[in-house]
């Protein structure tokens, strides 16, 4: 594949060149030679014969040279290059303020690779990593630098973001009061919703469920009353593709605020476990779902039209593609998005995309941190982010009736642009307004896209951002000290084993499972975790990014 070009920029460039064309003449040649002779004499007279740095060398020094990490997901098309050097890395270098060498790390083994690079002294100047605990460890071990002064002296774009949205600075500030982390802002969108087959509800004369008991009754009907009318007992009440919402529905989120203190919860965990046990024992879900680690089989049951309730995602084009497959397989089906049913603990939303996400830190060994900040500024710009998200106007997209980019050629976009997500780790999509969401990416004039937009609007109505079951988004929870992390990592697998046993073993009740979990918790040092979290909340709740901060930020975008 040839290097990507912005058709508009290329055209403008060609226009300027054509205006400068001329025919050399003997007179011009003589004048140029004379000028060169004078300059040469002048240089010799001023320097005493010493060699001076070239202008290109000066420009190179001003431009800077840095290294930046980049996830390797194995998704760069061969014709575009490699993860380290491809059409988009070239574009960033050609259009950005500094030379950049990209150092790739495997996406799902990134922290291991970073540790090797840090130990060998080869870690990049700008470390881009989503894992909060890893970034925190770099801060605790002094391997990253504060950036307050660098931002003040060398930034314009990111500096303005910090001023406009104080929550961005708050999220990147560490306990010593200094700013270390760089991040991005995004719309606060639902990451998991509950779809229900409305055509099945209508056929069985049922209403959309609003409580946990009503949901159980609806799932029972879907599993036993042949809603697809094929005369076979081959339908399920639910395909739980995400595996989280039915726990969150009961506010089973481990740590809750009670009487002004952050405490470990057991009551809600037992209620959620008992609910899952009923679903399993009554055959409302495929019996193998617990071993379906990536939930692919659950997705297939939904796509095949065999499940009446589906817990899935609705925030991206990938989710639309899944819906498109569902409709091709089930042309007469009709879906609705319903709010997560209310339990005795309240009504909550499920997982949501982190709207204030920290993504990068500057290595303490960086030789030119000023150039790193200039790179951050470039990658944070709206024009840069729009290009990396959509490609080039006239080549990959045109402006639609909504004012947002409309892809011209899906196949070309897929091959040349769709794999650039990790180039956007510093870009705040809030700068694009509605164009950052499906609202601007789907065309309501296309029937199937309008259908999904309608579902998206239903999801927005159920997702008001104010019924967050957690203290905050999990990425903003504090990172445990190393010794307590060991305790936590030791306890977790055993707790999961007990939970699975309770679900699949009829004689093993959720109540007995809780008693056994508490024994494991106490014997393994769980009380130390309770004490640490309680103290952290008492001392830091005023400075931490909590649910109310995320809600306030989201409201500020409206």
UniProtKB/TrEMBL annotation:
<protein>
    <submittedName>
        <fullName>Extracellular solute-binding protein</fullName>
    </submittedName>
</protein>
<dbReference type="InterPro" id="IPR050490">
    <property type="entry name" value="Bact_solute-bd_prot1"/>
</dbReference>
